[in-house]
Amino acid sequence: MTEKVCIGCLLALCALLVMRSYKPEWAPLLRTAATICFAAAALSMTGQLLRDTVSLFGSALPEDTWLLMIKALGLCLLTECAAGICRDSGEPSLGLWVENMGRLELIVTSMPLVRNVLETVSTLLSAGG
After folding, report:
1. For a designed S-S bond to 95, which of 5, 8, 25, 87 qualifies (C-beta 3.0 to 4.6 A apart)?
2. What DSSP character marks residue 129?
3. How confident is the model over 3-56, as pLDDT tens digits?
4. Cα 90 vs. chain centroid, distance in angstroms?
5. pTM of the model
C-alpha cells in the first residue's frame, strides 16, 4: 500500500509541476484531489491498524479509555492535516492556530483519563498509609 501511495504522490507532483507551467489555476484543484485520495488511503491503513491494536490490547484497558485514545488519535491526525493544508496554502499563522487549538482540545479530551489516574494514585496512597 505504501508503495502505491508513494508512486501516486510522485505522479501527482509531476502533474502539478507540468500543470503550473500551462494552467496554474488548475493546480489547487489537482492538489486537493490528490490530497483526498491520499487521505482515503491513510484512513484505510489506519482502520486496519486500529483493529489490530484493539484485538492485541483490547482486554488490557477499559473500553472508555480505548474510546478516549481513539478520539485523541483522530484529533491529532485531523489537526496535523488541517494545519499542513493551511501552511501549504501560504497561511502559516493560520496553521499555527489550528495546531494550538488541537493541542487545547487534546488536553480537554484527556482530562477524564488524567482524573482517573489521579484517583487511582490517591486510592493507592490512602490504602498504603
Report:
1. 87
2. -
3. 776 777 778 878 888 888 888 888 888 888 887 887 787 777 777 777 777 777
4. 21
5. 0.60
> Which residue type occupies 28?
P
Residues 6+ apart with CB under 8 A from 70: 50
Q: Is 26 helix (H, G, I), strand (E, B) or coil?
A: helix
The answer to whether 115 and 123 have CB atoms below 8 angstroms apart is no
Between CA 70 and CA 88 the distance in angstroms is 27
Q: Which residues, in sequence order, are CB contacts of 106 under 8 Å at separation 6+? A: 72, 75, 76
Neighbours of 94 (CB within 10 A): 15
> Which of 53, 78, 77 lies closest to 65 in space, CA to CA?
53
Q: Are residues 59 and 101 in contact, defined by beta-carbon separation less than 8 angstroms?
A: no
